[in-house]
C-alpha cells in the first residue's frame, strides 16, 4: 500500500506541475472562470506559478523517500490546506468564485488530511 501512496503523491505532484506550466505558458486564459487581467496581474500570476511548479516538484521529490521525507509531505499538505482556507477568505471578501474553484475548496481541505493520515494508518497496520 505504501507504493500506492507513493504513486498518488507523484501523480498529485505531476498534476500540480502540469497546471503550473499551463499557467506559466498561457497565462490567464488557463484560469477557469477567470476574466481579463492587466499586465500587473498577469505578471503576478505567472510569478506565483513558478512557486506552484516548485510545489509540485517537491511532492515528486518527497514521494521518492516517504519515511525520510514524510515531514515534507506534511508541510506541503499544510500549505495546500492553508490555500483552501484562503480560498474561503477570498469568497467571503470578494464573493463566490467560479464553480470549479467552489469544487476545489473541499479538495484542498480534505486531500491534505488524507495525505497526513494515510501513511500513519499504513505504519500502524504494519506494526
TrEMBL record:
Transmembrane helix recorded as keyword? yes
UniProt keywords, alphabetically: Membrane, Transmembrane, Transmembrane helix
Q: Where are the transmembrane segments?
A: 7-26, 46-63, 75-93, 99-118
| Pfam families attached to this UniProt entry | DUF4345
UniProt KW Glycoprotein keyword: no
Protein name, UniProt field: DUF4345 domain-containing protein
Record organism: Nocardia stercoris
For this protein's source organism, the top of the classification is: Bacteria, Bacillati, Actinomycetota, Actinomycetes, Mycobacteriales
